[in-house]
Amino acid sequence: MDDDDDDIPQLSSHALAALQEFYLEQQQREGMKTSQGFNQYSLGSIEEDWQLSQFWYSDETASCLANEAVVAAGKGGRIACVSAPSVYQKLKEQDGKDFSVCILEYDRRFSVYGEEFIFYDYNHPLNLPENLLPHSFDIVIADPPYLSEECLQKTAETIKYLTKGKILLCTGAIMEEQAVKHLGVKICKFIPKHSRNLANEFRCYVNYASGLN
Q1: How far are the Cα atoms of 5, 22, 34, 56, 196 from residue 11, in angstroms, in the given order?
Q2: What pTM, to 2 d.p., does this model score?
Q3: pLDDT, tens digit, for every residue of 86-111?
Q4: Residue 187: count of CB within 10 angstroms of its CB
Q5: Phi-psi category of 74—alpha, beta or left, where left has phi over 0 and alpha has psi -120 to 50?
Q6: Whole-number pLDDT of residue 9
Q7: β-pairing, 163-172 with 202-206?
Q8: Chain centre distance of CA 116
Q9: What is the pLDDT of residues 132-164, one digit of tens each?
Q10: What does the pLDDT read at residue 34?
Q11: What's the pLDDT tens digit per position in 184-201?
C-alpha cells in the first residue's frame, strides 16, 4: 500500500452511513419522478435546498397544517402560503374545489406551479404584484426561512398586508416573544415535525381559535 494513502481523509462509519442514506433517498425520489403515478404536488417532488434554509415538514405535519388552513379559510376561502411550500403542495394534493391557494416563495423552482406561484423575497415584504390586493386572503400560513427577528418582522409585514385576519405562523420556539410582539399570535399545543430532525424546536402560533390546540 502506498504511504500516501494515509493522508487521504476517511469518512467515519456514521458519516458514511448518513451519506449512503442520502444517496438512497435521492434514488428513491428519482424513481418516483419517473414512475407513471408521479404527482408534481407530492412532498419531495421538489427537493429541499438547505442553502435556502428549506426544511420540508413531515407528511403528517403538512397534512395537519393544510387541513387546518382549509377549515380556517372556510368554504370558498383563499389561502396564502408564505415560504411554506410543503403546505402548499399538500393543499394541492387535496385538489380542493372549495378553496383557492397561492404560494409566495423565493425559490423559483416552484414557478412550475404556474400562476399560483408568486416570487417573494422577505427583504422586500411589500414588493408584491398589483393584483395581490391587501387583506384578500382568509388565512395566511407562513414559515419565515430564518430564526431572526429581522426575518420575522419583515415577513410579518407581508402577512398583515395579505390577511383578512387569520394568521398561522410556524417558526422556532425561541421566536415566541417576537411572534407575539409582531403578530399578536399565541403558541399552540400542536408541535410540527420535519422530514429531517432539526436542532431547533419548532412550534405553531395562531391568532384565532384553531384546531391545533
Answers
A1: 14, 15, 32, 27, 21
A2: 0.77
A3: 999 999 988 777 999 999 999 898 89
A4: 18
A5: left
A6: 53
A7: antiparallel
A8: 15
A9: 999 999 999 999 999 999 999 999 999 999 999
A10: 37
A11: 999 999 999 987 666 679
Phi and psi angles of residue 83, each rounded to the nearest 5 degrees, phi first = 55, 35
Report the amino acid identity of residue 139: I
**Cell 430532525 sits on residue:** 197
Only one residue has cell 387569520, namely 166
The cell numbers describing 100, all together, are: 383557492
How many angstroms separate the CA atoms of 160 and 88, rounded? 19
Looking at beta carbons, which pairs linking 193-197 to residues 24 or more positions away fall under 8 Å?
A: 193/57, 193/58, 193/60, 193/61, 194/55, 194/56, 194/57, 194/58, 194/61, 195/43, 195/44, 195/48, 195/55, 195/56, 195/57, 195/58, 195/59, 196/55, 196/56
List, for residues 56-66, the tens digit of each pLDDT value: 788 999 999 99
Q: How far apart are CA 135 and CA 165, in angstroms?
A: 8
Q: Which three cell numbers stand for residue 206?
A: 395562531
